[in-house]
Amino acid sequence: MKTDNSLNWWRQYGKYVLMATRYHDQVIVAVDDCTYRDADGNEYLDLNAGTMCALVGHHHPQLVERMRRQLDEVIHTGTSFLSPVVFQASAKLAEVTPGDLQKSVFFSTGAEANEYALRLARQSTGKSGVLALTKGYSGLTWGMSALTGGGRHARPSLPDVGYLLTPDVGDCPPGRSLNDWMLELFEHSLELNRGLLHNVAAIIVEPIPSTGGMITLPDGFLRLLRSLADEIGALLIVDEAQTGMGRTGKWWGIEHEGVQPDVLVAAKGIGGGFPVSAVITTGRIADDVARRMSHYSSHQSDQLAAAAALAVMEIIQQELLVERAAEMGAYLQAQLDALAARWAGLRGVRGRGLMIGFDVVAPPESPLDETALGEALVEFLHERGVHAHPLKNRFRIMPPLTIGRPQIDRFLNVLEEALRALAADRLRPHGPRSQQAAALVRQRYGSPLVHAAQWAWTHSPQELVSKLRASLSGNVPNGNFRKSTQSPSQTR
Predict the structure, then answer these.
(1) Most confident of 151-160, 363-372, 404-413, 480-489
(2) 4-46+321-423, what's its fold?
(3) Among residues 393, 372, 370, 389, which one has the least CA distance to residue 381?
């Protein structure tokens, strides 16, 4: 695969790039529907819809035209004024959201919308506490990092935050009733948070915790949260950044459970690739809070954001993309199930609509740990023109809703080729996905030994000792230092 032209961009401008994450060498210069094209002419099937944002396909002509028209009208007025397109997009959201969710405000990112949703809940209830799932994801702002992944990246932690144990269906012990196990975890969570329950303003949940591992929650769990919120006088906030806008085969993931939230957060796909998020709530909550609170953000209900959201919702309706997600998702999941029946390395196929997860497991004799296995498979797919993104060895498949059977079949053929290589112990990572990025990191931060010393300097001695002890015992939660003796996916 040629990379000459892409690497020229890195050589000329790479020194100005803050390496906030690891980037591929390939520089993308064009997109179309489910396809990327890089500076060297290589094409990639995008199975992640960008960052789950290009819901109606990259560069959808109707979205592009609506944005161009808005550019000719109004780009930005500030927070003190609204324009017609904001009213139109708000009305369309009220049309497609469940129950009596009728009032909305637009922001730029999911984390920003979640921050506002919590502020709304605190003003509405007069309380300050929040309950979140231990494997949930709400964003990486300081406030939202406290609600993400059990708050392990929040430094310092926010007060009045409690965590509910996540009932990941794949973790249910063999022989246990799933419902009984779920209720046991729920009761244990309540006991752990007994001192906080009187002060909880909001319970926040994703219908499918995606970043936590594309987790399937047991039937009835979201209804338990609804009942708990009612009992303790809290608002139920449903974060539909990834599950919303038709992704799961219904307009909203919460609709599979028939649960009515107090606040719904939309993000990612609602903008079709343009940065848009929205908070939608009931008229009662909105009117009550408006008397006591105002909110002022630089890009609140911007005209371009509203235009993008309106166009995306219209495209979804016109092209029947909710129904298409259900149909294509059922086909993809059935084909993955068939692959899992043929190859021991594929397990745990799960999901709804075009929001599908699966685990890849190495043979017992393989030297690959979960992280290395995920990297090896990503590289294998990438070299064959398929772009996917794992969480270690747990894969999320969330393509644009416009994907068709030929593209799905192409992915399945490449995946089976990879599983065949894995079974033969021929699947290996070849190094960093970006040689150019790796060179920049070495140039800026020195050798691996220097980098290790910097890590030790910036982390507490207790943390270092804890990781070394975990390494010696083989119990390494993040795949650090050495291979874990058993992965959660191997128990499924």
Answers:
(1) 404-413
(2) Aspartate Aminotransferase, domain 1 (3.90.1150)
(3) 389
